[in-house]
Structure formats: C-alpha cells, structure tokens
Automatic annotation (TrEMBL):
Keywords: Decarboxylase, Lyase, Pyruvate
Broad EC category: lyase
Cross-referenced Gene3D superfamilies: Pyruvoyl-Dependent Histidine Decarboxylase, subunit B (3.50.20.10)
Xref: PANTHER family: PYRUVOYL-DEPENDENT ARGININE DECARBOXYLASE (PTHR40438)
GO BP terms in the entry: L-arginine catabolic process
Protein name (record): arginine decarboxylase
Top-rank taxon: Archaea
Lineage of source species: Archaea, Methanobacteriati, Methanobacteriota, Stenosarchaea group, Halobacteria
Amino acid sequence: MSTIRIVWGSASAPTAMASYDAALAEAGVENYNLVAVSSVIPADTAVEAVGTAPDLGPAGDRLTVVEARATTTGPGRVSAGLGWSQSADDGPGLFYEAGGETDGEDVETRVREGLESGRALRDWDFTEPRVRVESAQAAAGTYTTAIVLAVYGDGDPIV
C-alpha cells in the first residue's frame, strides 16, 4: 500500500517567495521540486497527517503534491486548508484545497463544501472527510505564507 503524507507549515520573510520557501522548510519539503496534480487519491493508498515530512529522498528529487497555499503581506491573516475523503474498502478518494487572506474557519468551510460537491459527482461510498488548516498572522512589512500539502510517496529523480 502506498502512502500520501499531509504536511503543513507557515512562515514570514521579506519577500513572497522567501516566505513560501520558509513555509516549505517548516513542512520538511524545501529541498524538492514540487509537481502539482489535481485531487484524486488512488485506490489502496493510505493518507497520514504527519505535519513535517520525513526524508523523502535526495535534494532535487521530484515530489508529486496537491497543494493548498496562500500568501499575504502584513498586517493581515492568511490560511490554507486541505481536506480529503476516501471511499470505503480502500477505494479511491478526493482532496480539495482552499486558501486566502482569511481566517481558518472560512477556509475550512470552503474545503468541506468543495469535498461535498466532489463527492456528489462520484458514485463511491465515502468515509467521513478530514481537514487540515494552517493559519498565520502576518506582521506589517513582511510576507507570510501558509501551506498544506498532500505528498504522494517519496521523491523521484528528475534527471
């Protein structure tokens, strides 16, 4: 059985890209090339919320991810959220993501509404949804990024 790990982080820095890189470092995936995919969980795949990724391979490897991301300039608040629901009996499932310059409750509501809509499109018997939201306050004069990622497996060599 394969594993998808849910990781998250938030950070502030003097530029938007630097805050994103620092948030990736908090989640343990700053040394990988992220390749975003849409939101389908393959059958026979475990999803584990781990917070910070373990060693997933050499620096520069490619990681397949579903990414919830939001960046703001301070002062303000930023939130990113990722939700998932799998079908019963180890069948496929779905991720939905949302983010913005808002509080975590708003983002969680949008994630849950997205999951409900996606579940309604499929003839699968789903388990209860789970949601992870990361929020952070941005101080004046800084950029702040919040991320939640679903990381599919380990890194793959890119070259």
